[in-house]
Model the fold of this input.
Amino acid sequence: MAADAALQWLLSNQQASVDRLVDWLKIPSISTDPAYKGDCQKAAEWCAARLKELGFSVQVLATGKPAGAGHPIVLATIEGTKADTPHVLFYGHYDVQPVDPVNLWHSPPFEPLVRDAAAGEEGGKRVVARGAVDDKGQVMTFLEACRAWKETTGHATNGVKYTVLIEGEEESGSTNLDAFVVEHKKALSECDVCLISDTGMLGRDKPAITYGVRGLAYTEVTLHASNQDLHSGLWGGRCPNPITELSRVLAQLHDKKRRVTIPGFYDDVIPISKKERKAWAKLKFNAKAALKKIGLSGKADIGEEGYTAMEREWGRPTAEINGIWGGYTGKGAKTVIPAQASAKVSFRLVADQKPSKVVKQFFKWLEKRTPPGCRWELNDLHGGYGVTVPIDSPHLEAATRALKKASGKSASLIKSGGSIPVAGLLKKELGIDTIFMGFGLDDDRVHSPNEKFELACYALGCRAHVLYMDELAGAKKK
Done:
């Protein structure tokens, strides 16, 4: 069987595969910081070069207005050799999160370290670096699967037609992706399904296919008061303090049952079905054990009343204050009443909530609570729709079979509390579903210092993509 040869090639070339990943991880492609714009370009070109080696027709396309203002997108296609098989769109991203606080890293974030688990750590050998699992490492599982097929059959995707879209702004809101998809809609609409490896498993030796992710609405709000910072001795008790007033307002976001208090917030929420709740309960998720891993006791299992931790993550919307600042925060004392205070406030959304509608509801809620003498500056930063894939989708079933063959265990069907806006965008613009076949773990420290990707998970991802291509080669378009 052709797949056996490809799998054997992966096994015989593990070190070279890890070395290629390390090369990509060395590039500090932080999309949110303009200082790293050149590195984002370099990371895109590195990815494009690998795809060219594998036989793809590749373009590195500028984004933004004027052209080049954004980070480039890598768009690649390889024609199929087998008639009437599905055309797959593989999506990933080469950009990474900022590394702050850098002093908490045990090794430099862009000097990838391949090491064994340290004392007190679970799991085995891993690569530690920013982007290790989110998302360069997971994209590499696809690229290495392509390399295995190329080396053993001469065709990088086993005769199946693939389009590859690797963007550079996922960690900064995918600012230019909507326009890019619309501009290339004709070509992208030829795809039958999207496959993304940017999610996780239930645990080591617990493979999973994610059939739904939450949406996102992200805002920044600033409360303005006086036209200058004020002496707190002269003005304290005489006028509004924006930090105090902003805190008062945001503290009203949740009621005693920890439900969001914004009128209309839950109007479009599709309730968790009895079937889903029953299926999730069978997964026997240990909320207390999960909390312990992040340094919290079981008492910290809090959230919307009436739902388990897993139900709150996978099937319920939330409101979170992601950051708050204002006034003097330097060393020593400075007795001021600041002129303004700001906060980042985001909402994780579920079907069928609309990001733009939720933002409008939130801003209206704020305006009604405007403190005396103050005014708001309200900014809608970005958002994305949540998506759910039908569990009887033939494409999802093919991925499930591939993952079972790759791991030797049946894959659980799960949802994710995270957001991958491109999935909602592709559904809206192209009408295609997205399958999430990811290989991360809940202790991979995504977005945190000492991010890692365990080599066993990396190897599983490579095998799963090889076997998914094998499944597709025998499939017919639906």
In short: The chain is about 35% helix and 20% strand. The first strand starts at residue 57 and ends at 61.
